[in-house]
């Protein structure tokens, strides 16, 4: 988890979103333990209650499970569940403005593929 917090949303939400990204990227797999609340709080200089609130959101969403005395662990099916939700979110929230920009600039599919293959150049 990088320590570049932004001001657009609460830090606990950013903690939650970063764990989600770690699950989607495969850095955290089903059954893996989440980093401890204390270690995350110390490493990124945030209040442990803030980290706990982000972790509680993940538990409320049934993406992780709390094991008393052991910590939190990624649930089976968490990645699959997240993929569906994140794809829907992307297609409804992020894709429409991107598509509008593509149309506004008159970009062709070939130009987009070339830019993608050249690292955006």
What's the short story on this structure?
The protein has 121 residues and is mainly α.
Structural class: mainly alpha
The largest sheet, given as strand count, sense and whether it forms a barrel, is: 2 strands, antiparallel
Give the name of the CATH superfamily of the largest domain: Winged helix-like DNA-binding domain superfamily/Winged helix DNA-binding domain
Average pLDDT, all residues? 93
Q: Report the β-strand fraction as a percent range.
A: 5-15%
Count of individual domains: 2
CA-based shape: elongated
Structure annotation, total helices: 5
What is the number of strand segments?
2
Low-confidence stretches: none
Order of helices and strands: HHHEEHH
Strand order of the largest sheet: 1-2
CATH C-level class of the largest domain: Mainly Alpha
- What is the annotated CATH architecture of the largest domain? Orthogonal Bundle
* Rg calculated over all Cα atoms: 18 Å
List the helices and strands and how they pair.
Layout: H1 11-25, H2 37-44, H3 48-60, E1 64-67, E2 71-74, H4 78-105, H5 109-117
Description:
With 121 residues, the chain is mainly alpha-helical. It has two domains: 11-76, Arc Repressor Mutant, subunit A, CATH 1.10.10; 79-117, no CATH class. 60% of the residues lie in helices and 7% in strands. It has helices at residues 11-25, 37-44, 48-60, 78-105, 109-117; strands at 64-67, 71-74. It has a two-stranded antiparallel sheet with strand order 1-2. Strand 1 and strand 2 form a beta hairpin. Helix 1 crosses helix 3 and helix 2 packs across helix 3 (48-60). The longest helix is centred in the last third of the chain and has 28 residues, at 78-105. The chain is elongated and about 55 Å long. The chain starts with 10 loop residues before the first helix and ends with a helix. The model has no long low-confidence stretch (mean pLDDT 93).
